[in-house]
Write a structure and sequence with these properties.
The complex is a heterodimer of chains A (about 80) and B (about 400). Chain A is of the alpha+beta class. Chain A is built from two helices and five strands, in the order E-E-E-E-E-H-H. The longest helix of chain A is centred in the last third of the chain and has 13 residues. Chain A is globular and about 40 Å long. In chain B, the strands form two sheets. In chain B, strands 2-1-6 form a three-stranded mixed beta sheet. In chain B, strands 3-4-5 form a three-stranded antiparallel beta sheet. Chain B starts with 5 loop residues before the first strand and ends with a strand. Classes of the chains: A alpha+beta (about 80), B alpha+beta (about 400).
Chain lengths: ~80, ~400
């Protein structure tokens, strides 16, 4: 419910305001039209195809760790796959 | 089902109408799994981090619940800052839909540039009000924000709303009492928001999806305690109802007494026109509340009744409706039980307001599909949705 997912930027298409993000082995193209100055290797919170804002690597790791704790990572990457398709 | 969950909606059409609508919300109940055993002090921040889309509303409901359960009182300053952060979040979430989704509903382009400005203001607001990140910490040392800085951000937001959403000051929009005046505004203002309202009129969809679902009443703590501590708690969280009745918790439910809504409702019932208008009125009203709270600090905290020992409730009126948290702490002040009842579960209940509204739709397939999308966006599920249309 009401979740945005942390993901790492791996490529940027500035002209299209798009980026490719990754979580584990899953990749997805997202819009970066709502945020500024995003760079490769930075982390963003992802919601319905948009990067909402940048977050630190530590914050991303802490959030992902919480899902790991309850063994939800599999579903987590499942979510990314759903958005990708 | 993904972690974020989704809502699937299917419509079975026959005789130029919807014969049957099915609404299925598949959103996992994560709170208990994520928070059981967590130290009470850490819970609100963890909640804000995980349920990060409406992080302020979630963390606010959480910290109120934890405070009540642990017998800790909030300071007036903390309550005031939390309320202001929640207001900005509600404004941001409504603007998200208005900037990114509403234009697409009438075949226009999403206004990314405007939403970008909104997100920057939201960030600025948070930095100004809660620079030390104390607002959602149990017993946090919350200081009153710098008034001049907060007022300047509010003023920028007011200008944005005036120039890009209402085309008049938010106060003037909220003061609009007559349907005639409002519909003239929609007809003659060639901009995104009024044009969506006008498109409802042009298509004759003002009354589409009329319902008479009652607004979610104020919760009685004793009743909540009974249902959420019973064996039925999980099914209640997934598909909440009260004595078998479903309720709606939407901007319309909160704006139902506004004179413009009353007049539109008399003419068109609670259909698309009323629902979209309620979102706009709520946006204006929340901005006015935010502005007012800068001038005149709130003097009390919104606590949900009194609860049994070690139990706490927190309720927040978030963008999509009322959000409720209930926590039970153990003797070491760790979370034993953590429950969340989210507004989407009321509004997207399999027998709830959306289903009833969808079953009232009429027209050809394309028209019904378009009206259904409008209805779904007006009620805003907060997660992705799928709409499937088939014929009997």
């Amino acid at each position: 419910m009401c979740l945005a997912i942390p993901a790492r930027i791996v490529a940027i298409d500035e002209a299209a305001d798009m980026a490719t993000v990754t979580l584990g082995n899953v990749k997805k193209d997202i819009s970066i039209a709502l945020i500024e100055d995003v760079k490769v290797d930075e982390y963003v919170l992802l919601h319905v195809g948009y990067a909402l804002h940048k977050i630190s690597e530590e914050e991303a790791a802490r959030t992902l760790e919480m899902f790991d704790e309850v063994e939800l990572m599999e579903e987590f990457t499942g979510e990314i796959t759903e958005v990708t398709s | 089902m993904g972690l974020e969950g989704n809502v699937s909606i299917s419509l079975l059409l026959a005789n130029q109408g919807v014969q049957q609508a099915a609404v299925k919300s598949q959103r996992p109940l994560l709170a208990q799994a994520l928070l059981a055993g967590v130290n009470a002090k850490q819970a609100p921040q963890k909640v804000g981090m995980v349920f990060n889309l409406c992080a302020k509303s979630q963390a606010s409901a959480s910290v109120f619940a934890i405070e009540q359960a642990s017998g800790t009182a909030s300071t007036k300053e903390a309550c005031a800052v939390r309320a202001q952060l929640v207001r900005m979040e509600l404004i941001r979430e409504h603007l998200w839909r208005i900037c990114l989704d509403w234009p697409k509903l009438r075949g226009a382009q999403a206004d990314n540039a405007l939403m970008k400005q909104v997100l920057l203001l939201d960030k600025e607001w948070e930095a100004c009000l809660d620079a030390d990140k104390q607002a959602f910490i149990l017993g946090g040392d919350v200081k009153p924000p710098l008034k001049a800085k907060a007022s300047s951000i509010a003023m920028k937001l007011g200008t944005l709303l005036k120039e890009h959403i209402f085309y008049m000051p938010p106060k003037a929009f909220y003061a609009c009492k007559g349907a005639e005046e409002y519909l003239l505004w929609a007809q003659y203002t060639q901009m995104n928001v009024p044009q969506l309202i006008q498109s409802l009129v042009v298509n004759g969809w003002q009354a589409s999806g009329q319902t008479d679902t009652a607004a979610l009443p104020y919760f009685q703590v004793s009743w909540l305690q009974e249902i959420l501590s019973s064996d039925n708690a999980e099914s209640f969280m997934k598909q909440p109802s009260i004595e078998g009745e479903t309720f709606e918790s939407t901007p319309y439910a909160r704006q139902a007494s506004h004179p413009l809504i009353v007049e539109l409702e008399q003419k068109y019932g609670v259909g698309l026109l009323v629902r979209f208008t309620a979102v706009l009125l709520e946006l204006a009203k929340t901005y006015l509340d935010l502005e007012k709270a800068l001038m005149q600090s709130e003097s009390k905290c919104d606590v949900v009744g009194s609860a049994p020992d070690k139990t706490g409730f927190g309720a927040v009126e978030a963008a999509r409706g009322r959000l409720l948290h209930r926590v039970v702490l153990d003797d070491e002040n760790k979370v034993e039980t953590y429950q969340i009842v989210a507004p989407t579960e009321w509004n997207f209940h399999p027998d709830g307001v959306l289903k009833r509204a969808l079953e009232k739709l009429q027209g050809d397939t394309e028209s019904i599909e378009q009206q259904a999308k409008l209805l779904i966006h007006a009620m805003d599920p907060c997660v992705a949705f799928e709409l499937e249309v088939s014929h009997a």
